[in-house]
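The pair is set out directly below:
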Amino acid sequence: MRRWLRRSLHRRMPPHVPPRPKRSRRRFQRLQSPPILTCVRTCVLSTRIVMTSEKPLMRVLALAEEFDAALIDVPSSSIASDPVLDVAVTSADSRRTIYRLVLAARGGEVTAREHTPSKLPGFCPQLHINGDGTFCLGWNGAGLLAVEDEASARLWWARLHGYLRLQQRARRLGHWPDREWAHGNAAGYQNEAEVAAAQLGEDFIEDLYADKFEATWCGRIHPTHGRMLQVFREGVPIYKVSERHQRVLNSRQACICVKGDVKRHRRLRSCGEHLKLAFDFALALRNWVSAEDEFWRALVKTSATCCGRSATCRLRAAPQLEPETESPASIDAAAQGHVRERLTAAQWVFERHLAWIAAAEVKVGIIVAIQTAMLGGLAAAFSASEPAARTAWAYFATFLTAGFGVLSIVCAAMVLFPRTSGPEKSLLFFAKVACLSQEDYSESFLKSSPEELLRDWTAQIHRNAQIARDKYIWVRRSMGWAFGSGIPWILAGGLLVKV
């Protein structure tokens, strides 16, 4: 019995499948009519969107109607092909503009371009339209938005509408109306500069957005620090960076995170991570400008032409970027750049002279301290000595030591003696600056040309060089008298003090 049940359970009967009814020719013709075909394609598209919601393009298309966009055509039966949409954009004055766009999926991102360039140019770096016609909706390192869910798809649509509104404003203004990313590899350096500036303070990042910073290489290569990068803020130098040592040169200065002259502020090396951030900002700022110039030079070599939509486009002056003969304007610009480099070098030389003057005064302090100790010890030994020990030789050695010590201190005093003589007119020398009112000095400084500032710097360099020379002459004399007083001081001590 068990054997029979087992055979019955394992017995396989062939399934009975009824034949599939064939579609009639008349019904097939009805499906081919345009209204029914459009409805079927729409239903199929909606079904594919729901079933394949993991794809970025599907997520974007699913929200098209919500963002005032209508699907016009799907070129093939596969949804992987590029769909065409009419996107209506409402500007601030309530005017509606319809753009016919083509969407495409690239990895996790969705790109958009105009179907036929009519309202927008086919290529314009200043208007952020790439060479293939796609819109630059963000930079690859920080600005691109991966469409991963419904929320990111909504952000993508919001960014597209904002981009098209900016295009409408740019057409009226003649330039891009908003803060923008740099072109090519310069965008990466721009991102590094903005990250460093944001950590250095709100004033720092606001001045960066206002284009108030500039980083230029100094004209002279320092034998110790190599090439030096000078950072300017509103035309005023704030700090230098050594390319060879990869650091800020004067880390003892007040931190740059506070704008203006703030007393009792932390030094740059003691203000958190600002010392490293200052170096990163300077290098990123310089690389940003260099990469931007390199992008435009490479673009000019491709014989790209300007579309005429942006007044700030460098392609407008493409023939003048590499002229065969130098024009007067280019000669003047080169001369101004040469003067600027000379002015930066003059500032560095002036700072070196001030450092030499400060070093001379430090040496004098050591000499005065030693001489004071020697004279005090000699006076104590003389007062404590017995009358029999005060021989003629003891008096001679004592007076000789005292004379040499006094001469050494007098020479040291000549080093510290202030020298306030200078040129009749100067925007740098404190004595002449103090003679002017604040308004007169500000007006004179603003009206002065780079050549006049360079003359003022060189005059101050020459005058401070004379002061440094005189100070070191007196330092050498003071050290000579100090060394000369050593021998009679030892002799006097040996005669006056009995062991």
Q: What stands out?
A: Confidence is low (pLDDT under 50) at residues 8-19, 21-54, 319-331. The two ends are 134 Å apart (CA to CA).
